[in-house]
Amino acid sequence: QVETLKEKLLEQAQEISRLRSELGGTDAEKHRDLLAAENERLRQEMKACEGELRELRRQQQAPCRDCPHLQEKAGLQEQLSQLQREAEETRAKLVELDLEVQQKTNRLAEVELRLKDSLAERAEEEERLSRRLRDSQETIASLKSQPQQIKYIIKTVEVESTKAKQALCEIQSRNQYLQEQVGMQKQVLKEMEQQLQSSQKTEAQLRAQIVMYEAELERAHGQMLEEMQAMEEEKNHAIEEAFSRAQVEMKAVHENLAGVRTNLLTLQPALRTLTHDYNSLKRQVRDFPLLLQETLRSARAEISQAIEEVHSTNRELLRKYRRELQLRKKCHNELVRLKGNIRVFGRVRPITKEDGEGPEAANAVTFDADDDAVLHLLHKGKQVSFELDKVFPPQASQEEVFQEVQALVTSCIDGYNVCIFAYGQTGAGKTYTMEGTAANPGINQRALQLLFSEVRGKAADWDYAITVSAAEIYNEALRDLLGKEPQEKLEIKLCPDGSGQLYVPGLTEFRVQSVEDINKVFEFGHVKRVTECTNLNEHSSRSHALLIVTVRGLDRSTGLRTTGKLNLVDLAGSERVGRSGAEGSRLREAQHINKSLSALGDVIYALRSRQGHVPFRNSKLTYLLQDSLSGDSKTLMMVQVSPAEKNTSETLCSLKFAERVRSVELGPVSRKAELGSWPSQEHLEVPKRLLGDSPGSAAPPGRGHASPSPGQLSSRSASIRRKLHTSG
Ligand code: ADP
Ligand code: MG
Q: Which controlled-vocabulary keywords does the entry list (predicted)?
């Protein structure tokens, strides 16, 4: 089969070569690879067939290597060889026995022969003796007839007869002996015969066994033959199968070949077009590098031109952006200047449960629907209107309030100093606006959060460090709320570098980087404050609380350094304390508060009216904030008022203060005479109410803090301090 396949392959090769020659030069070249591949495939198929054939042959030579018949056959052969060995042994034994029998038979024959001889001898002797006896008797008889003679003869005979008798006896005894011998020999013969018989029996047995073994051998042989037959059949079957498969494959190969042939025929025109295409492509390919170079050159030129354009546009944009930025800053500053560096907002808190019920708790404040800067107060039956920069109604959220101040807060990143004051009578919402609640924080926390996010946004070019300090001014004494010695009074000193800047030696500064840090600082400061006084609400209403945030920036590219300060001040309650009602420490507190609030008013007035002398030194508060109030710093006064009927007189005072502060910024120097000097004694006006019913004592205890024991608090503050040190 392989041979025929090879032949066919050869034929096909010839056919291919014929076709190739028919197709001619270039076309044939195109198809050559195709046919070669086909050829290769056929060759591989043939190889596979050969391999199969070889395998079959091998199988034929070594039939069923692992089949169970083989094992059985081996077992049988083993058995057979054992049986043959046994038969061999038996045969050898038989030959031995035969030899023995032969020997014994020979001996027997010898003995018989000897017996025969002795019998013949005896018979001969008997014959001779009987003959002599007869002769003797005849002689006796003849002698009797011849008495004398006979007598003698008798005598002779008698003599002779004794001799004969003796001889006879001897012979008889000898006969006896011989007979015994014969008996013995017969006995031996009998035994021999018996032995022979048993040997014959054994032989028969062995023969039977041999026959049996032979039969078994025959059977095994038959079985083996059968198996061989079966294997032969199997082999034939496999060969047949392989043959038929090969035939089928051959057929497929033929078909393929036919297909190839037809393909070849159909491909010819395609080949021609392909050749044509190929040639044109070849030409194109030849020209391609030139074309490509040309295109690349032009593309490169275009790209570099575009890049150049983009660059110039970018530069232009950057320039414009910078100019715009500059302009914006200018505009902002202009806006701030126009609006005034001092802005005054009013915030009216809602009526709370603490305001009680009845006419005292009635609402006395109304708003202008069209103007969010106007507020009306109904005081003693008369409506008084005030205009501020903005008024927040009771429903204004902390978020809304903060939105209005966030521009101020961010300007401290640019290096501006900012002050935000919360002014108002106790219970009007100063602390709520500045600190807020944990769930709804006020300006302090929101400002720091905003600073953090702004600083993060500029982190690509700037390095910023934000630090916070917390201080309290009580009775004109400055104390560090974050320090180790809260009782220690701090001094405000001039910087020894001659810059004219002020600083507070010993005032603790904590670097903060996250909201968690701020919360820790606030908590720490709060705990300090609580530790130091017995009634925080009362104490806080009698002291100014300051949170000083310093933002130091470094522009990494230019090395420019900026420092901005954000002062968040929760002022002491502005309520007037009755001169007659207050005495001792309470009077002293009231005087201090009044003095510092008046001083704040004076300073603001002096600043806005651009007076040569600004009386910063009149109070600790203004002195401390000197840097942050002067120059191009920005100030926001958040005037807090209560809308309750019972607080209208304090509300009126606060709003008047607010309006005055605001009018200062509008008023040029010439208006100074009109406005007159700051009414510093305003806060010491004689009150109609006594201290007992002042809003200070009526301050809602809701926000009040339970007074923990000082020991507990100092240990707690120490632990918070530790935390702050580790984090900051
Ligand atoms: P102050 O600090 O001026 O003495 P507080 O901030 O302690 O006043 O406010 C007094 C009470 O009024 C507090 O219970 C506070 O929660 C509440 N309060 C103040 N302002 C608001 C407001 N805008 N919205 C809701 N509650 C307020
Ligand atoms: Mg307060």
A: ATP-binding, Cell junction, Coiled coil, Cytoplasm, Cytoplasmic vesicle, Cytoskeleton, Membrane, Microtubule, Motor protein, Nucleotide-binding, Phosphoprotein
